[in-house]
Fold this sequence. Notes:
Alkaline Phosphatase, subunit A; Jelly Rolls; disordered N terminus
Amino acid sequence: MKRTLLTLIALLFIFTSCNEAVKTKTVTEVKKPNIILIMSDDQGWGDLSISGNSNLNTPHIDALAKNGVTFENFFVQPVCSPTRAELLTGRYATRSGVYGTSAGGERMSLNETTIAQILKEAGYQTAAYGKWHNGMQPPYHPNSRGFDDYYGFTSGHWGNYFSPMLEHNGKIVKGEGFLVDDLTNHGIDFIEKNKEKPFFLYLPYNTPHSPMQVPDAYWNNFKDKNLNMKYHGTEEENENFSRAALAMVENIDYNVGRVTSKLKELELEENTIVIYLSDNGPNGYRWNGGMRGKKGSTDEGGVRSPFFIQWKDVIPAGKKINQIAAAIDLLPTLVNLTNTAFETKKPLDGRNLSTLIFNDNQKWDDRIIVNNWRGKTSLRTQNYRLDADNKLYDMVNDHGQTTDVAAQNQQITDSLINAKNNWLSETIQLTKETDDRAITLGHPDYKYTQVPARDGIPHGNIKRSNIHPNNTFFTNWQSAKDSITWDVEVLADGNFEVELYYTMKPENAGIAIELSHAHNKLVSQITEAHDPPLTGMENDRDPRIESYVKDFKPKILGTINLKKGRSLLTLKSPLLKEKDGIDVRLLMFKRIE
Length: 593
């Protein structure tokens, strides 16, 4: 009976149009298929054994390809936030206000519709566990974008992967064990709790993004290993970094196996769509199939991702699809596969891939996929790539982009340059220079708002702990003239309990702290010293570039009344005499009655 119902579902889904909203009514007689979307962070296309890399073994991820469909030419953006926005919205990230990876540039515009919102409206239970990186404060927070449950961190990178400070639906909590294992634990719990209901589980893992931390059981397999397959280019490969990255990928593979085993145990495999991809190219020069470029590059190696989709006994097993596809295609494809009626506020850029998945020799119109980052834009067609310098490469015969063929194909080159210019003029909505969005605080529908150091501006002697802001804290507070400000828009009047996460040397106990916004002010005193050492380096397998971390202590400063409106949120120590003050990690605002 189950397979008969699944066949009925598949037949209903195959023939819907590519870019139009699905108009078919929901089939209430049949349980909609579950969806598990797993995305790694900074894993290259080549970081899998199924891609031909003999340096590591990834049997569980490989099984998704063997039991499902592989898109051989699947593209994402060069860095984290844009890719995440595109797979959630079906639209190029440049349309949705995403232009950066920190300081607010990672936020999706509020008039965008996410796949989670669509599925939730259709009756799905929704959860996201991992690295969000598309906005921290509500209404940019994952709980505001369609996810019923969220556990992880919303910034772009984190400083510690072993029992770190995280959040659960806005509340600060402490993780349990290695982070990817912990996220998977939450995912498995979610599956078990919702096994009788349709669910959408988004698992955006945080590895192999640096810092390069991984449990001993995985590192021990790689720390002395000779890498048979190495980076092909002229740039120098850091082999120790490569070993750490591959060890982290093997840990991901272990956790993918835990998820798929749970589906089998609960007899959910035949009614669950499982997707695996990465958010950009590799975060270092290592073996990647001979392609040019890594993370941050708009060349093939920076934007080609593995992409596997499994739905047992419904979609073909072991099928490989050569047509180009992209993260923007996920939303239209998933609403089609789940037969979900929807309307988005904006037109989609993505296509429904279902016809390619289910049909052989399917006529598929030519298309262009655009990759963009930091002023560099590259266009990919089925056969060519026009790079950021307007050089043309034959991607069928020259995957490494070694020979410019623009002169021999001038008409193609000119048409792609014209298409690039049109795309740039049509899609770029915001830049760092034009973005005037404030940090949102006190959304009336949400209890917690986190205001971290990464979003603040230091004044006077105060310094950021690292040039990469996402996991930083403020330090070197020496004078009463020093301060930290945040450009904040309070969304609704209210009283808020304010909690400060700080460290302070014993000789500085008793420091007075003043927090103000517009005409409202809160004054408190920090009497309890807390001076832990910097940590993180003890778990790093390769030296990091990001900030080390501390065990910051929470201190309730008191209650402040905030009025709706935009003004600077200012933190000062007005009585501080020339000495070190406190280090500041974040402020947490809790709306109270």
